[in-house]
Amino acid sequence: MTLPLFPLNTVLFPGCRLDLQIFEARYVDMIGRCMKTDSGFGVVAIVEGDEVGSAPGEFARTGCEARIRDWQQRPNGMLGIRVEGGRRFRVSSAQVQPDQLTVAEVEWLDDQPEKPLTVEHDDLATLLGALSLHPMVASLEMGGEVKGQQDLACQLAYLLPFGLAQKQVLLEMDDPTVRLARIQVLLEQLQGDLTA
């Protein structure tokens, strides 16, 4: 499967929403093609380099498909799009085209079937409910009812203020139960840092 890549300084998770302003020609063209063919593109985290200009020097090999859910012309003349995370993938090879757009051969990663939440997830579900009241989260229409462990883990991993490398590790985890346990550990570390 060939997928155009959009390297960013963020990690997108399945089911999560991201607003982007598109102004570089390579990405305006890419978005146009995606909208015409009702296809997605891949969001990968930048490891080395910048979002703007030439293709980044290095990006994470595991990313998330982005599906365009809405678009509008911004007052500044740029194209604004809202995407939603789809399937996770692993990049097997990539090449930079003459227009500096990176195109990759990817393998889709299998996500486990959704598992129901258990009592031990009550605190994390309550935390997501509290996050949903934040204006930024509300504007993305996230943080409402969750379908299960996978949904809860993805939304928390995306919304909580973890570092880029920590979020990338969470994205690469296949088991939602393990991902939720890791989120709990990261939260405890965050609380420890705040009280120190």
UniProtKB/TrEMBL annotation:
Any Pfam family hit: LON_substr_bdg
Name by which UniProt lists this protein: LON peptidase substrate-binding domain-containing protein
Gene3D superfamilies attached to this UniProt entry: LON domain-like
Top-level taxon in the UniProt lineage: Bacteria
Domain named Lon N-terminal: residues: 1-191
PROSITE patterns for the chain: LON_N (PS51787)
